[in-house]
Structures are given as C-alpha cells and as structure tokens.
Amino acid sequence: MPRKLLLVLIMLAPLAVLVAMIALDKHFGAGRALDYVVRIEFPAPGEEVGLPPIEGPLDASRPLVVIDAGHGGHDPGAHGGNRNEKDLTLALAKALEARLLAGGGIRVALTRSDDRYLLLEERSGIARRLRADLFVSIHADSAENADASGATVYTLSDRGSSEEAERMAASENRADSINGIQLGDTSNAVDAILVDLSQRHTEAQSSEFASLVLREGQDHIAFRNRALQSAAFVVLKSPDVPSALLEAGYISNARDVAWLSSDAGRTAFADVADHAIRVFFARQTEPAVLATP
Fold this sequence. Notes:
There is one protein chain. β7 and β8 (about 180) form a beta hairpin. α2 (about 85-105) crosses α7 (about 265-280), α4 packs antiparallel against α5 and α5 (about 190-215) crosses α7 (about 265-280). This protein has about 290 residues and is an alpha/beta fold. It has helices at about 5-30, 85-105, 120-130, 160-170, 190-215, 255-260, 265-280, and strands spanning about 65-70, 80, 85, 105-110, 135-140, 150-155, 175-180, 180, 225-230, 245-250. It has one domain: Aminopeptidase, CATH 3.40.630.40. It is built from seven helices and ten strands. It has a six-stranded mixed beta sheet, sandwiched between helices. It has a two-stranded antiparallel sheet with strand order 2-3.
C-alpha cells in the first residue's frame, strides 16, 4: 500500500469510528439521547436562591448566626472513610444549630438543611440578605498524606479583601449598601474606600471569632499545628458579615472521620463553636442576653 494512502487512512480512522458510533446509537437507541450526555440545570440569570427559615427567638434584636454546611447536591466534596464531605458537614451544621438553639438567646439559619447544591456566592449572599451577625462555613479538609489531621480555622486573607473591595465598588454593584451606607452616592474611588474600611472592620471581627474558636477548643478538639490561617475563600468575601471557615478535621484521616462521625465528636465540635459564638456576641452586647441556662 502506498505510504500516502496509508497516512490518509490513519487520519480518517477516528472520524470513521465516530460516524459508526452515531449510526449505531440512532439505530439501537430509537432516537434517545446518548447515555454519556449530562445536563445540569443552573438558576436563571438574576434569580436569587430562596432564603432559609430563621429558628430561635422571635426577637429580631437577638444576634443571628448563619451556618453553612459545605458542598451538597451534585458536589460531594472530598471523600474518606466511606463518607462524603457534604454529609459530614451537614451533620456538624445541624449539631451546632441544635446546640445554639438549646442554649437560647441566638437566632440560627442554615444555608442548606438537606442535600442540595448552592453556589459559593449564594451561601454568603444568604447571610447578607438575612443581615446575619456571623457567618460560619463548615468543611472537612483533605490531603494526600493520610496522617494529616486536626481542625483549622480560616478567615479571609488581605488579598481576598482588596479584590472584593474593588469588585463591590464596581459600577454593576453600586446599588449595594455596606454597613448601612448606600454606595453609588459618591464616586467609584470613594465607594472603594468605604468598602475597604467596612471590610477591614469585618476582618477584625472575623479574626476575633477565629481566635475564640481556638481558645475555646483547647483540650476539647484537636487542631493542626498552624490552626489559624487566612485564604481568599469566595465564601468568606462578605464585606459586612464577620465570617470564618471551620475545617473540622481531615476526611482523609480515618481517626478524624471516625471522631467527627460519632455523637461525641459532633457534640464536642458543637460545644466549642457554641462557646466561641456566645463569647463573641457577649463582647458586643450585654452578657445577660446570651447567658446559657
């Protein structure tokens, strides 16, 4: 066979295979769609996710905590110990919700109470729309090193803050209000300064809460060596709601998974977070309002 003809046949072979697959599918599939086609429904442009119910005291002056169980729906998160991260985080979120409600004095809302998917912006957006006083996102870490273990508390990094300040001050966001100040009445430069100042204040509050989690968690839950860190997590980029992301442990570590999946582990996690939240709010309000019975 001539060399040129052989090269042409080699080049046409993949196309011939594809045509044959399509013909077979039409013949045997009776017009059905190919099995490997996956369709994912996204919200319509501009459509906002519904707000979750607020549990706890009916008094709107009481502080509101929005608890976010990471991942969900078609996003299982990391996997380890026969558990998906989305299931582990939801169980921890519900344990913390129950502990806060049992202690009284604090209103609570969950970004998701079942297995559903939310965009990262929707999670922090729920906290902003509800005018939350604190946003806590719960996750479980993962590493190739199966010996890696312990909890970590993340706050927003300076880089993430500055990027968000610029974004929020952009023309398409000028209808937003930050800490009660309506943007759009001044120049873009002034808007950016207002957002930056607001977020610096929010960052200070977020760092205070993160430090309290570490303080309250001593001798109760295991932390990593560098337990307090910052990163540009999208879910933490709310300019006016103090926010922290709690990596409760490593789902890639068998001991961590077993502990966090147990009643004792969930109770310890919920108690530590509950104590940190109450001290955080007590420093800003009258202690008697948040006293645990």
